[in-house]
């Protein structure tokens, strides 16, 4: 390998370090965006999914720091810094690759645990847990949905509004498009919801009839796909950088430098 090849490797490693730094910033942004997606449904998802965006942000910050070793090592042709860079990058590479694969595996499990958690929290509505009540209300209003799979999920739920007033669903299930201006509540007793049953929902139905599970699942699955895709893409870039770092370190160890 001549001087020209050595110069090309050194230049490419510097370019890839710039890409590492950019990819680190990208991971931080992706983690922050994923966190904003997860946050509204914090009570409905497993703790592992809550920590995933945080881990992504941490890895992004670490990559940005590691890029410093690569830049210094390649520009000064310092063997120790190049090896440190390659080793640290290899560790992050394995973590990211494993995380990306795990994300795609977990994507297929979202519906199961999400449905279980949503149904398990129905009984906490308006009982002892105000956070659950607020979260359900926000989810149903924003998603224009009611219940988990269907609005009838609330029928068997022994909640305050059901026991005390004979109401079948929470106020947040009311279809706001059908309400007069400045009115937030609708009629929700059995007789009022008769128009909601059947395969074709009548226009007189005062509530949302579609469950919230499909909408939440779609948001979480898309977020998981983004996390997994970003992690694997960054890991691929890092693999190339590791190869260049090792080649340049080998050349430096043999006593060849190019200035």
Please give a structural write-up.
The protein is an all-alpha fold. Helices cover 64% and strands 0% of the residues. The chain has seven helices and no strands. The protein has helices at 3-38, 47-76, 79-107, 110-120, 130-143, 160-165, 213-253. The chain is rod-shaped, with a radius of gyration of 27 Å.
Jot down its keywords.
7 helices, 0% strand, 259 residues, mainly alpha
**Shape descriptor:** rod-shaped
Order of helices and strands: HHHHHHH
Strand content: under 5%
Total beta strands:
0
Number of helices: 7
Mean pLDDT comes to: 76
Low-confidence stretches: none
Secondary-structure class? mainly alpha
| Biggest beta sheet attributes | none
First and last CA, distance:
16 Å
Give the fraction of residues assigned to helices. 55-70%
Radius of gyration: 27 Å
Short description:
By secondary structure, the protein is mainly α. 64% of the residues lie in helices and 0% in strands. It has helices at 3-38, 47-76, 79-107, 110-120, 130-143, 160-165, 213-253.
Helix-strand layout with pairing:
Elements: H1 3-38, H2 47-76, H3 79-107, H4 110-120, H5 130-143, H6 160-165, H7 213-253
